[in-house]
Amino acid sequence: MNSQIYIQDWFSETADKFSKNTAIDCGEQQFTYGEIETQSNKLANFLIQHGAIKGSIVAILAKDSVKVIIAIIGILKAGCVFVPLVADLPDDRIYTIIAEIAPQWLIVDATGLTKISNGRTAEFLQSPIICLEENRNFDNFNLLNSYLNKYAEYSQFEQPNIQIEPDDMSYLYFTSGSTGKPKGIAGRLKAIAHFINWEIQTFGIKEFTKVSQLITPAFDAFLRDIFVPLCAGGVVCIPEEIDIILDARKLIEWIERQQINLIHCVPSLFRSILNEDLDPKSFSSLQYILLSGEPLLPADISHWMDIYGDRIQLVNLYGASETTMTKFFYFVKATDRERRSIPIGKPMDGAAALVVDERGKACPPGMVGEIYIRTPYRTLGYYQQPELTNQVFIPNPFSNNPNDIVYKTGDLGRILEDGNFECLGRRDGQVKIRGVRIELGEIENYLRLHPLVKDVVVVDREDANNHKYLCAYVVLKEELESGKLRDFLLKSLPESMIPSVFVVMDALPRTISGKVDKRSLPAPNRQQNRTFVPPQTPIETQLAQIWSQVLNLDRVGLNDNFFELGGHSLNATQLLSRVAKTFQVEIPLRSLFESPTLATQAESIETLHWVKESPHLEGALEEGEL
User: Fold this and answer.
1) Which of 130-144, 398-412, 551-565 has the lowest mean pLDDT?
2) DSSP letters for 49-81
3) Distance from first CA to last CA of the chain, Å, rounded?
4) Please, what is the angle between helix 538-551 and helix 569-583, to 10°?
5) Do β-strands 57-62 and 105-108 pair in parallel, antiparallel, or remain unpaired?
6) Phi/psi at 25 (nearest 5 deg)?
7) Fold of the domain spanning 7-238
8) CATH no., domain 430-520
9) Measuring CA to CA, which residue among 625, 605, 591, 585 is closest to residue 616?
10) β-strand 393-395 against 381-382: which pairing, if any?
11) Three-state secondary structure call for residue 113
12) CA-to-CA distance for 239 and 260, rounded, in angstroms?
C-alpha cells in the first residue's frame, strides 16, 4: 500500500478489483463491493452538489450498520468529517452532541429518522437530513428541514475528486468526559490507513477473509472492523440481530455458521463465550481473536488453551482512541496462563512508547510509571478543547524538538525484562467497563442533577469473577428507590454508564483535606433496603438459584430486579443461556430488559411451558395475543 493513499481511495481501488464479490454479509442480505462503491459515491456527490465543502461536519444517526458503513465512506469521499451516533443513545445525549458540533448535515436510516423527529433535537435542528432508505414515506417528517425526497431521486455515481491532506480532520468520536459532558476526539485522516495497513499485513487478510463486526459504530474500533476486510477484498460479517451478539450461544452458532476467520471483541464478550459448553471441534475456520478495550485475564487464557490449545491465535491489543485505535500488540502464548497479567506487548511499526515516573524521568524495566505513546498517527486531540488537548498531548520530555509530541495515556505500566509492556490500570478517575471508557465524574455530575441527591461518588469495583462494575454511593434528601435513580440516569446516559449498584449513605466518608475517602466506602450490598419475598413455585425456586449463581448472590427474591442487583447485558446472556438449558425454553433478551424481575421472568417461563404443551396456541403467542 502507498503510505499516502487515503482509506476511502484504498477502498475504491479494492472495490474496482473485486466489484462483484460480497463485501458485506448481514444474514439474508449481501452487498457487493460494487454496490457499496456506487452508494457511497452517490452520497458523496449529493453532499458536494448541495453545498458540503471540505471539512463540513456530517453526523450519522442510524441503527443499520450497512448504512453507517456507506455513510462513512461517502462522507470521506466528499472530504467531510463524519460523526457516528447510535440510535439507542438517550435523546438528551444526542441533543448534547449535536448542539455542540452543529453539523451541516445529518444522515439517518429509518430508525434514526424516527428518533430525531420524536426527540428533543428536532426543536433546534437546522441541518438538512439525508435518509438512506429506499421507497420511504416521508409525509410524517415534513416539519424537519430535510433533503429526504431529493436524495432518493439522485443518480450520480462517479467517484468525486476532492483535494485532501493527510492531517485533515476526518471524524469525531465522542467519549465520556470528566467535565460532565461527552468530549469529541478528532481523527486524523492518515492515521486510519496506517492502522488498517498494519493489521492487513500482520494477519494476512486477503480476498474472501471473513471478519466479524460486533462493535457499535459509536467507537473508533468500528473503523478497524470494516476497513480491514474492505481494503483487502475480504467480507465484513454483521450479525443480523443484536441478540446474536448479546447471547453467547447464538454468537457461537453464528461464528461457526458464517465460518468467521478473524474476530475483534472485548475480553468481556470473549469471557461470555468461554462460559458456554465449548466443543473443541468448533470454530473450524477461526484463525485469530483480537482482544482490546480492557484487561485480558490469565484465567481466561488458561480456560481457552485447555480447549483449543494454540489452534486459534489470541492477540492482546492496547491503545487509546486519542492515538487512533490501538498501538500495541501481543501474541498470547500458552505459558502466559502462569502470569499475573497478560502483557500488552510492544508498539507496532509507526509507534513508540516509554514509561515515565512522577518526576518526569524515564523508568527502567520493572519500574512502574505512566505510559506515554509517541506516533505521528495520533489524533488531532479534543474537538474545540485546546486546553484539555494540551494536558495530554505534550512535547516529548526527552527531545528538544517542540513538534515531537507524545500522548500521556493516564495508564500505569512498566516494561518487562523481555521488552514487552505491562498495563497496570488507570491513575485517574477514568475506568473501563466491558471495554467502554467511562469518566466517573460524568456519572456523578448527572446524579447531582437529581433533586433528591445531596452528595454522590461513583467508583468501580470488582466482583468474585473479576468482572468490573460501577457502584454509586449517594446521600439523599429523602428516601428514594435506587431504581428511580437508574431510570433518571437512563434519560441522559447510555446503559454502559449506569451504575449496577446504588448504596445509600447518611454521609460520605472524607479525608482530612475534605476529599471523599474511597478506601473507607463500605462494600456494596446489592440487596440493601429490599423486602425479601421468597420464591414459591418450583420454577421460581430454580430460577432464583440461577440468578444467584450468575449474580454471585446468596439469595434472590421474587421482586428483585436483575439490573438493580448488578446485572448487565453480558451476564444477561449468561442468565438466559442457563434458563434455556434448565427449562428448555427460549426467552428473548429484550423481554428481560422490559420485565427484569424474577417474578415476571418466572411467569414468562410458565407461559412458554404452557404454550409448548398446547401447540395450537403458538401462533397466538407469536402474534402477541397472549
Assistant:
1) 130-144
2) HTT--TT-EEEEEES-HHHHHHHHHHHHHTT-E
3) 59
4) 140
5) parallel
6) -120, 115
7) Rossmann fold (3.40.50)
8) 3.30.300.30
9) 625
10) unpaired
11) helix
12) 11
Helix/strand number for the chain, H first, E second: 20, 26
User: Degrees (nearest 5) of the Cα angle 236, 237, 240?
Assistant: 135
pLDDT tens digits, 352-393: 999 999 888 999 999 989 999 999 999 999 999 999 999 999
| Burial of 513 per CB tally in 10 Å (0-12, 13-18, 19+) | exposed
311 DSSP assignment: S
The answer to whether 504 touches 484, Cβ cutoff 8 Å, is: no
DSSP line for 72-121: HHHHHHTT-EEEEEETTS-HHHHHHHHHHH--SEEEE-HHHHHHHHHSGG
Going from N- to C-terminal start, the domains of the chain cover 7-238, 430-520, 538-622
CATH number of 538-622: 1.10.1200.10
**Residues 483-517: pLDDT tens digits?**
788 888 888 888 778 888 888 888 888 665 556 77
Checking phi first, is residue 251 left (phi over 0); if not, alpha (psi -120 to 50) or beta? Answer: alpha
Residue 352 CB neighbour total at 10 angstroms:
15
Q: Cell 499516502 maps to which residue?
A: 4
Record the cell numbers describing residue 532, joined without a space.
425479601
Secondary element (H or E) of residue 438: strand 436-439
What are the two backbone dihedrals, phi and then psi, of residue 412, each rounded to the nearest 5 degrees?
Answer: -85, 145
- On whether the CB atoms of residues 61 and 115 are closer than 8 A, the answer is yes
